[in-house]
Amino acid sequence: MTKQLDLTDIQGNVIRAYGRFGYPVARYVFLNIRDSELGRAFVAAVTKRVTTSVEWGDGEGQIKQPNWTVNIAFAYQGLKELDLPRSSLIGFSGEFVAGMKDRRDILGDDGASSPENWDPIWVGNRETRERDVHIFISLNARLTALLEESYQWLVSVVAQHQGGVVILGGHRADDGQLLDYQDVQVVMEDGKPTSKEHFGYTDGIGDPVFEGTPNYDLNVHGRGKQMADGSWEPLATGEFLLGHIDEAHEYPPAPQPVLLSRNGTYMVYRKLHENVATFDAYLDEHGKKYPGGKELLAAKFVGRWRDNGAPLVKAPDAESKAKFDMALLGADQRGKDKLLSDFTYDEDMSGGKCPFSAHIRRINPRASLEMVKGENPGSMILNKEAFDTPGALTNRRRLLRRGLPYGQAKDRSRDDGNHGIVIMMLNADIARQFEFVQQQWINYGNDFQAGSDKEILLGNHSADEKFPSKAVLQVDPDSDQAPYFLSKIPRLVETRGGEYFFVPSMTALRMIAMGVIDPT
C-alpha cells in the first residue's frame, strides 16, 4: 500500500526545492525574540501565510501556485524564548541544542572557516542574547519585485508585534556592506537563469526521494535506494520527517508530545563562500598536466561534467560524453532526470571513472561502501552477501538539499568577493546524517579506502605546508595509465555562517503560537 503523507501539515520547503519550481530568487531573514507572548503572536501571524506542501495546480486537492512562499524554522534558543516546556525541550537532539558554532570541531570549521570569520549576524551575545538568532524565515519568489513585496509583508508583521521580535542585521554583502537579510538567486548566463553555481558546475541533481512524496515513482531511479534485484525504491519517510518509520524500521528520536515533532524535521543552514580565483588557478595548473584535459579534471573533482551534470560513471571520457549529450538533448524532463541520476558504482568499484574523493561519491556513495577486495591488486567489488539491501549504510546518511547561490563572481581573479552558495540540508537526525557526512566522508577518507584524503571541493584543506592536502584520481586497474595525484589542494570553500534549526509541522506551529505544548 502506498504511503500517504498529510501534505497540508508539512511545510512546503521540506517537499519542494523551490528553485526547481519557478522561484529563482529568495531572501532569508533571521529574528531575535524579545518578548515571549508577543513572539508567539508573531509566530501565529506568520503561520497564517506559511506555504505548505499541498500540490499546486488546477486539479482536485491542489491549490494555485503562489507568487511567493513563506516558511519558518527555529533555533533551540528560540524555542526556549517561546516558552516551550522543559520536558519538551530536553527531547531535542544534543547537537541541535548545542548549535553549529559549538560543533565546529566536528564539522571541520577551522582556519578560514572558523566562527570568528563568519558574518557578524552569527556572533551573538552570550550575556544578553539580544543578538542570538532565534527564528529563521525564508521567502522565495518568482520575480525580484515579488520578493521585495514578500519582504515588506514580513517587515509589516514585525512592526505589528513591536517589542516582541526584531530582525537581526549583519549579513555581509558587496563591498563589505552589512544587510538585514541574506539574498540568494540563481546564477545567470547570457541573461538566462541556470542551475549552476559559481565554480561552473550544474547543481541540484539527484535529491533523495522518499515514501509519500508526490509522484515519487516517476523520480525514484537513482534517487531512492538500490534494491538487491537492481530496482529502486523510495527511502523511508523517517529519514527526513520525524514521527515516521526510518530505514532501521524505528522512529527517529524526537521531542514530546508527538504532535510537536511529527511531520517536522531538522534543517542545517550553512553559508559557504567559494574561492573562485583559487579554484580557477588550481584547475588551470593541473588541467595543463592532466591527461584528459581541464574539463575532464573538473569533472573528476565532482563526479559530474560541469556543463550539464553528466555523471562520469556514464560518461567517463569525451567520446561517451558526446553520446550522453545527444541522449540528454532528445529526452523530456523526466527522461533527463533519469539519465542524470540513474546509476550505481557497481561497475566502477576501482574509482577509475568517478574518483573516491569526488564530491558526489562522498556525499552519496550509493552501495559502493559495501566492498571487499577484488582479484586485481587494489580493486574492490561489491559484497552483495553482506547486506539485505545494497547501500544500507548510505541510506542512513542521506540529506535533502535546498538553497541557492548568493552574490556574483564579478572578478574571478579575486577570492574576496561576495559569492558562494547558501545550502540548507534537511534530515531527521543531524548527528547521524549531516554531521557524519561532514566529518567522516567530506573531511576524512578512510571509508573510501582513501586514508585521510578529504573530499576535493568541500574538504577543509590545510594551508599548513607540513600537512598539505592531496587526492588520488584512480584509473582502471586493467589500464596502462598511472593514477594522477592532486597535491597541495587549497581550501576552495569556506564557511561564513550557519545554524541548526527545527522546522515544525503546521500543527506544531499553531501549538507553539498558542502556547499549548503539553508533553504529557
Task: Give structural notes.
With 520 residues, this protein is an alpha+beta fold. The chain folds into two domains: 13-270 and 501-514, no CATH class; 276-400 and 446-496, no CATH class. Helix content is 25%, strand content 18%. It has 16 helices and 19 strands. It has helices spanning 12-15, 36-47, 76-81, 86-89, 94-98, 104-107, 144-160, 216-219, 258-261, 276-287, 294-302, 318-329, 333-341, 359-363, 431-442, 506-514; strands spanning 25-33, 68-74, 135-141, 165-167, 171-172, 178-179, 182-185, 188-189, 192-193, 225-226, 232-233, 265-274, 371-373, 380-382, 400-407, 419-427, 471-473, 484-486, 493-503. Strand 5 (171-172) and strand 6 (178-179) form a beta hairpin. Its cofactor is heme b.
Task: Indicate the structural class.
Answer: alpha+beta
Report the end-to-end length measured between terminal Cα atoms.
33 Å
Number of strands: 19
Number of domains: 2
Main sheet properties: 5 strands, antiparallel
Number of H- or I-type helical stretches: 16
- Could you estimate the helical fraction of the residues in percent? 10-25%
Shape: globular
Low-confidence stretches: none
- The pLDDT mean sits at 93
User: Which band does the percent of strand residues land in?
Assistant: 15-25%
Cα-atom Rg, whole angstroms? Answer: 23 Å
